[in-house]
Structures are given as structure tokens and as C-alpha cells.
């Protein structure tokens, strides 16, 4: 819960002996309140130690198989980010070279995603894919409004077509910008949007279709090319030209290196914009994302604001104003450092570990794999029907050894299905995968001796973070 209610209690921090620098025992008298500003300052080293100690309770990020977000970077990248901590991304005049690195990253991505003219593609960095998706959604809505001024004025409600598996940022977009979400439910063994479902939901008020490259639920790629082809046919039938946005939060940095023949990007004329998270498979610490439009026409000029830049004007499109520049410098570092071959090697290693781990888990005899980690290096699996434990029990027991493997229930119409999901990231080596397998092997006999899933005994199933 990120929205906090004020806490009115008067709990205090306690400072042990030897934490106080100048007066070790005297420092013990200090008891800064937890929820109010203290009356006076605390020595810097004391303050550092207090915050540092408290944060020990945050989990070990390397054992967190729930998150897509980068948890390890090289020492040189960390040094670079430390050097750039004071740079404000919006201050293009003060930090023109950071602005230049951002521009180079946009060109690199435009080329990677086959923009017809990489130098004419338009794009920007963001705090993550969520902000990038908001911007892309706003551009779609604006284009629709401009195409349909009369309909908009007379109260028609614009809608956005997507699968129910989309990440929560798309629900936010629809709520914040008053767009009707038209979501295709899951059905049987189809866990993401397909072309037929997408077209069936489109009408004259559709601002666009979102295709996800790397569904957060199971790591699968949605069939973007098929969706585009179906929309081509739809346009021939109805005259309605519905643009596509590809949410490539994770897959946008995987497919170009591991699946070069897969056509999902600006090679498809219907794809108007693409986003990715620099802090997922872009291999940068949080928070950086990217939004790109295929050309100037795809991004309405009214949405672009200008900031002062070396006495001139620099166009910007963002929800935030001030934002750290360190992540952009780090993104450029990663691009420079790895090149195409390096990216292929890093993402390939992740996919190899994912495939290996999925295969071994499949052999254990009590799990059924939904995906195999052969698209985004992520896979989801569930328990077979004949075991006395469920995915929530497995997740809970793995947690005892420090592993975070989230368990969660699928959305409509597959609420009957609960899964575990593993995200293989750079830094999750085959050795760590073997340790996870060994732990799983050790606890399965115990789980098999359970009478029934603990949920049935009234133990609440803790649903894990899975976005
Ligand atoms: C993670 C994710 C997002 C949100 O990205 P952030 O960078 O965390 O804001 C959006 N869409 C998909 C498909 C994702 O996987």
C-alpha cells in the first residue's frame, strides 16, 4: 500500500551505545520520534546507521523471483549512477550531455524496433513503462478525438481494447483519462489477447488496441502481427483505422535479440507506438522507461511542451517535470557496454536458465507448466489436481528459505486457476536455479504429507506481488 495514513502514535527510534559518535552513551538518551520530525538534528553517522539497520528487513533482491526489475548492475554502472545522482533530467540547459545521451538511447531503440526512419522516430525516457503507457495512451486518445471531433463533442465515450491480462497501468490509464477499458477475458488455455477477440471489441470509438509483448501473467507474447492483420481486414470492411500500441515492457528488450524473425514492432505499419522498461530487461536499476512513436504524425503536436535548452527550445512529453538523470546515463552505459552480441548473450542466458528450470520443475511430477520460459524468460506453473497442497502452500514454504516466488489467481474467466510465476533475470544464474530446485525437492515430501491445502484449514492464501 503506497498511500499511507498518518500514524498518530508516539513510537520512537532507540539508539544503542556506540552509535553516538561524539558521546556514545549520551546518544542513548536520544529518541527521535518515528512519525514526527524530531526536535533537533542527529549525527550523520547515527542517522545513517539507524536507517541502514532498519532496511535490513527488506528482502534479498537477488532471491526475488517475483520482480521483473533489475537487481544487479556492474560496479562501473553503479559508480556512474552515483556520479549522476544530482542531475535533473528536465534541466536540458544545465545538463545538455545527459539530454544527448537520452537522444542517443531513443535512436538506438528506434533502430532496434525497426522504425521506418530511426532518425525521424520520436521518443523520450520516462520513470518506467507505466508513465510511458500513459503517454502512449494519451496520444491515442488525442488522435481519436481529433479524427472524431463531432462524436467526442456529443458525448461518445472513447474505448481502448486489450486483454484482461494487461498490467495494471492500463487500468490506471483508462480511469485517469476517462477511457472505457474493453478487455477480452481469458478462455480455456488462452491466457492473452488474440486477433479475433481484439477485432470483436473494436468499434468507431476505439482509440487503439494494446498488444502486450510479454504478458505479466505468464511471460507469453501476444500475437501482434496477427492482431494487426485482423485490424487491416477490419479497416477494409468498416473503414475504421485502429492503431496498435505495443506494451513491450519486458519483451521489447528481449525479442529484438532472441527472436529477430518475430515481426511485432514498427515493421508493422499499424504499430503507432511502443514502450519498454529500461529497468526490466533493459538492465538498469529502477526507474527508467521508454516511449517511442513511429513518426511525428503518431504523436499529436498539442501534447508536446517545450523547455529551455541552451537558449533554444527542446520539445518534451512527460507527466513528471524533475526526474533523475542517472538512470538515463546508466541506460546508455548498458547499450554501449553490451552491444548487440552482449545483449543476445545476457538475454539468452536468462532464457536458457528459464527453460532449464521450467523443464526440471515439469519433471517433479506435481506441477503443470502453463508456459516454458521460451518467450520472455518467465514461466508460470500450477499444481496437478491430485496433490494435497496448492500453489500458495508452495510459495509460503519457499519463502522460508528466502525465495520469493509469487502465487496468484488468474483473472476472468479463469479465476479457478492459481499459478506460481518465476521471472529469470540477469544475475539469476543456473547455480541459483539449482539451489532453488534443491529446496523445492526437499520440501515437496513434506507438502505431500499435508492433509489438504492449508487454505482449506482457514490459513489465508497470501497472494504475491505479480506485476
Ligand atoms: C512491468 C510492466 C508494466 C509497468 O512497468 P513499470 O516500468 O514497472 O512502470 C507495464 N506493462 C507490462 C507488460 C509490464 O510487464
Question: How does this structure look, described?
Answer:
The chain has 467 residues and is an alpha/beta fold. Among the domains are: 24-58, no CATH class; 78-334, Type I PLP-dependent aspartate aminotransferase-like (Major domain) (Aspartate Aminotransferase, domain 2), CATH 3.40.640. The chain has helices at 24-27, 44-55, 75-83, 96-112, 129-147, 149-153, 168-176, 195-201, 224-238, 255-258, 326-363, 391-399, 430-448, and strands spanning 122-126, 159-163, 180-184, 206-212, 244-247, 271-277, 289-293, 305-309, 312-316, 367-369, 378-383, 407-409, 418-423. Helix 10 links the parallel strand 5 (244-247) and strand 6. Helix 5 packs across helix 7 (168-176). The longest helix is centred in the C-terminal third of the chain and has 38 residues, at 326-363. It starts with 23 loop residues before the first helix and ends in a 19-residue tail after the last helix. The structure holds pyridoxal-5'-phosphate. The site of pyridoxal-5'-phosphate has 16 residues, from helix 5. It is an enzyme of class 4 (lyase).
Amino acid at each position: 500500500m503506497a498511500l499511507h495514513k498518518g500514524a498518530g502514535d508516539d513510537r520512537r527510534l532507540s539508539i544503542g551505545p556506540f552509535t553516538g559518535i561524539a558521546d556514545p552513551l549520551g546518544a542513548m538518551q536520544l529518541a527521535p520520534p518515528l512519525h514526527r520530525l524530531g526536535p533537533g538534528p542527529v549525527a550523520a553517522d547515527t542517522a545513517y546507521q539507524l536507517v541502514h539497520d532498519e532496511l535490513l528487513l527488506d528482502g534479498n533482491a537477488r532471491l526475488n523471483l517475483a520482480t521483473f526489475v533489475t537487481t544487479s548492475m556492474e560496479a562501473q554502472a553503479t559508480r556512474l549512477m552515483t556520479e549522476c545522482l544530482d542531475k535533473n533530467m528536465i534541466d536540458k540547459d544545465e545538463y545538455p550531455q545527459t539530454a544527448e545521451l537520452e537522444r542517443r538511447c531513443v535512436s538506438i531503440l528506434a533502430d532496434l524496433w525497426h522504425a521506418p526512419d530511426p532518425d525521424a522516430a520520436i521518443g523520450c525516457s520516462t520513470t518506467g513503462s507505466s508513465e510511458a503507457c500513459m503517454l502512449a495512451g494519451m496520444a491515442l486518445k488525442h488522435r481519436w478525438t481529433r479524427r472524431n471531433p463531432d462524436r467526442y463533442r456529443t458525448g461518445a465515450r472513447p474505448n481502448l481494447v486489450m486483454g484482461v491480462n494487461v498490467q495494471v497501468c492500463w487500468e490506471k490509464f483508462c480511469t485517469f483519462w476517462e477511457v472505457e477499458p474493453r478487455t477480452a477475458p481469458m478462455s480455456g488455455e488462452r491466457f492473452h489477447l488474440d486477433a479475433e477477440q481484439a477485432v470483436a471489441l473494436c468499434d468507431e470509438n476505439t482509440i487503439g488496441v494494446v498488444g502486450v509483448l510479454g504478458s505479466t501473467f505468464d511471460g507469453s507474447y501476444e500475437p501482434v502481427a496477427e492482431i494487426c492483420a485482423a485490424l487491416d481486414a477490419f479497416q477494409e470492411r468498416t473503414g475504421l483505422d485502429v492503431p496498435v500500441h505495443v506494451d513491450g515492457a519486458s519483451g521489447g528488450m528481449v525479442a529484438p535479440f532472441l527472436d529477430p524473425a518475430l515481426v511485432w514492432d514498427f515493421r508493422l505499419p499499424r504499430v503507432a507506438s511502443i514502450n519498454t522498461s529500461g529497468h526490466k530487461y533493459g538492465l538498469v536499476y529502477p526507474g527508467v522507461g521508454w516511449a517511442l512513436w513511429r513518426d511525428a504524425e503518431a504523436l499529436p503536436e498539442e501534447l508536446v511542451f517545450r523547455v529551455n535548452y541552451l537558449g533554444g527550445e527542446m520539445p518534451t512529453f512527460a507527466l513528471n517535470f524533475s526526474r533523475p538523470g542517472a538512470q538515463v546515463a546508466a541506460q546508455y552505459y548498458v547499450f554501449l557496454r553490451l552491444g548487440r552480441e552482449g545483449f543476445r548473450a545476457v538475454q539468452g542466458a536468462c532464457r536458457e536458465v528459464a527453460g532449464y528450470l521450467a523443464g526440471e520443475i515439469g519433471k517433479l511430477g506435481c506441477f503443470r507448466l502453463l508456459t516454458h520460459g521460451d518467450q520472455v524468460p518467465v514461466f508460470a506453473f500450477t499444481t496437478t489436481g491430485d496433490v494435497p497442497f496448492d500453489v500458495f502452500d508452495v510459495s509460503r514454504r519457499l519463502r522460508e528459505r528466502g525465495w520469493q516466488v509469487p502465487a496468484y489467481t488468474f483473472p476472468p474467466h479463469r479465476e479457478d486457476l492459481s499459478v506460481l510465476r518465476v521471472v529469470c533475470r540477469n544475475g539469476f544464474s543456473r547455480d541459483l536455479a539449482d539451489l532453488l530446485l534443491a529446496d523445492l525437492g526437499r520440501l515437496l515430501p513434506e507438502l505431500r504429507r499435508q492433509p489438504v491445502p492449508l487454505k482449506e484449514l482457514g490459513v489465508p492464501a497470501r497472494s504475491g506481488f505479480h506485476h
